[in-house]
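Hi L.,

You mentioned the student needs an example of a multi-chain input paired with its predicted structure. This one should do, with 399 residues in total across all chains.
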Amino acid sequence: MKRVLVTITGTVFGVVALLSFKTQGHPRAFAGALPSAAAPTSPAGAPATTSGGGGSTPPDPRSSSAAATGAKKRYVGSAIETPYGVVQVAVTTKGSRIANVSFVQLTAFDGRSQEINSQAAPILLQETVAAQSAQIDTVSGATYTTDGYLQSLQSALDQAGIK
Amino acid sequence: MGTVFSFDLRAPGVERAALDDAIAWLHRMDAMFSTYRTDSVISRLGRGELELADCPPEVSEVLDACAALTAATDGYFDAHAGGRLDPSGYVKGWAIERVSDRLAAAGSANHCVNGGGDVQCRGTAAPGRDWQVGIAHSLRPGELVATVAGRTLAVATSGSAERGAHVLDPHTGRSPAALASVTVVGTRLAEVDALATALFAMGERAERFATDRGLRALVVHADGRSTTIGAPAALA
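Structure written out for the whole complex:
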């Protein structure tokens, strides 16, 4: 599936898709740069670490083990400062496909650093407010964090050579 | 600008293929309505290179809805606000609503789709528990201004704080300054999202308009005051 990042967390499917739908009257140069799975070009950066794990099971980004299931590589994106905090993600690729996305840093909302290390592609807005209210399922508004998420993700994909 | 879509599917889930189909449909709509791409259907239609009759049926569905919303909002929602055909302000909410319909048709009775902060929920979060949607405070990062609960529930927020001034008053061409954000609550996101955009563009006139039309809305003013119309939400 092109441009789709998948995770399964317990009984809940959480799937994050990146699209270039825009808000009215707000063109941004970034729009054309969204990731899509494609043949890799020469990677600009070396992989930071290699994570094991296979299938849709999200690997722990902190673990480093020999990749048993083929060429999995992990690329850490730039830390992006947003008005809501710092967002930094890591992408794990398998061949030319995105196998997993995880947060390296997410200092957002109440300023508390939230490390989300075992969930692939988080349900972004939900996770960031989980500390405030366990009953909140999702959040309307506040897109700074997603902007930072996308920018960091893009820099990781650039390193991975995925356009 | 890219947008992150999240799909939160509670039991009963759907086959992975159904989810993939839904996401593939979103990508098709994204491409069809992209005003960034000069070769998109909407760009070609806007330049007169295509006739409406030659476009996929989704195009007339969207443009008809935009025209109805322009009439219903005294012109504050306008798919031609930038001087060219650009229904982007409608397409995202519409696409989220429609993809929710597709997931429901595939067997997902309980799910929530969030596209860049615009939310369509369906069914329940858990047996007997309504979906709880937080509304981010547009002036105080990290805080919720309110929460709203429901089953079939659509929530959209339009504001200047998220991304700078991106909604223009089509009558003045300027960004409305009086409001920090407007959230509209309803059941179908396409209309709810467009109404949030229109109300925000109205500025101080928004509250009266929302009251007169019986809308459920939450308005955060630039000075930090917030007011609810139609009791849409529990203040956090």
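You could point out the following to them. The first helix of chain B runs from residue 16 to 32. Residues 52 and 59 of chain B are 8 Å apart (CA to CA).

Best wishes,
N.
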